[in-house]
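Field log, afternoon session.

UNIT: design team B
ACTIVITY: writing a sequence onto a fixed backbone
BACKBONE:
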């Protein structure tokens, strides 16, 4: 995944992506399958280690499942809502600064022209 050129991960149209894939057949025919095989084998090794540890220490599976549920909830719900709240605070701050600047300019004009 990390050795794949970034052009493969961009959101271009299909024709450009097909042109890129077929222009350099050495990458598509030799390197890309090796990267896929390495990634697949690494995932299988991680799952095998996890299965062995869970078989020997069943309590580990309980903690891992609870941690994964917590992590999923954190990434799915808490962080996006935290981002939305910070954006709302920035918008309110910008509106406050704009309003206070307008009030200051209005007061300055009243003092300047005496109206």
């Amino acid at each position: 995944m990390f050795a794949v050129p970034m052009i493969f991960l961009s959101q271009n149209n299909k024709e450009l992506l097909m042109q890129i894939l077929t222009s350099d057949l050495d990458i598509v025919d030799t390197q890309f399958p090796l990267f896929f095989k390495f990634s697949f084998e690494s995932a299988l090794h991680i799952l095998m280690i996890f299965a062995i540890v869970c078989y020997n220490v069943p309590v580990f599976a309980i903690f891992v499942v609870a941690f994964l549920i917590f992590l999923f909830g954190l990434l799915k719900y808490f962080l996006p809502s935290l981002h939305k709240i910070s954006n709302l605070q920035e918008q309110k701050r910008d509106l406050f600064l704009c309003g206070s600047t307008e009030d200051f300019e209005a007061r300055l004009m009243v003092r300047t022209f005496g109206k």
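LOG NOTE: The mean pLDDT is 75.
NEXT ACTIVITY: expression trials, pending approval
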